[in-house]
Specification:
- The chain has one domain.
- α2 packs antiparallel against α3.
- It is an all-alpha fold.
- It is 79% helix and 0% strand.
Length: 202
């Protein structure tokens, strides 16, 4: 297993653009995990930090705008027009326009909410440039923060751990995958509220 990881790292280190492409693809699965992996690769010298961070930005923005585009295309289909009235669309659009910033920011940090919120933004025909401004601003702050933590504190951890420093990156990526899944599992196990007892009739 270690030999395979070493071979993969060697292959990526010979082509920075191949590593960047791998990071971009990884963002389509889990953005935070891809950001952590990009920081680990940059710390290890596999890819320059600006290229790694730029790849994360490209992947995140491409994924977010792709979801918006899918939602925007869906509204023009026949089934959408049959099941959703113009009045409902107008009401939903007004509601989301008033709450767009908190909705998009909350979706970024809430497991399972990013895709439906971004799809809804396109479906309800929210201004693309307003949507784009919010998601890029949030991604710039959040992603840069995660990457900076890994990049600047990674060498300290690596020096303290020594040759097993690569395991830290594996653990961090694993946690970033597993924690959102675990939170969703806990949310699904919440008991439904008990029905109210019928009022006694006189």
């Amino acid at each position: 297993m270690i030999d395979r990881l070493a071979s993969l790292e060697s292959g990526l280190s010979t082509n920075h653009w191949l590593a960047a492409a791998a990071i971009i693809l990884a963002t389509f699965i889990l953005e935070d995990a891809a950001t952590i992996a990009a920081g680990v690769l940059a710390v290890g010298g596999v890819i320059p930090a600006p290229v790694a961070l730029g790849a994360v930005y490209i992947g995140i923005i491409a994924g977010d705008t792709g979801l918006y585009g899918i939602g925007r295309a869906a509204i023009s289909t026949g089934w959408a027009q049959r099941f959703i009235t113009a009045r409902n669309l107008s009401q939903g659009r007004r509601w989301l326009r008033r709450r767009l910033i908190p909705a998009l920011v909350g979706a970024r940090f809430t497991p399972g909410m990013r895709a439906p919120t971004f799809l809804a933004s396109g479906f309800l025909r929210i201004s693309f440039w307003r949507f784009f401004a919010v998601i890029t601003s949030v991604a710039a702050v959040w992603t840069t923060g995660i990457f900076a933590l890994i990049y600047y504190f990674g060498p300290v951890v690596a020096e303290a751990i020594g040759k097993d420093a690569w395991m830290v990156g594996v653990v961090l990526v694993t946690l970033s995958f597993s924690i959102p899944l675990y939170l969703r599992y806990l949310a699904s196990r919440k008991p439904a509220p008990a029905p109210a007892a019928p009022a006694d009739t006189p």
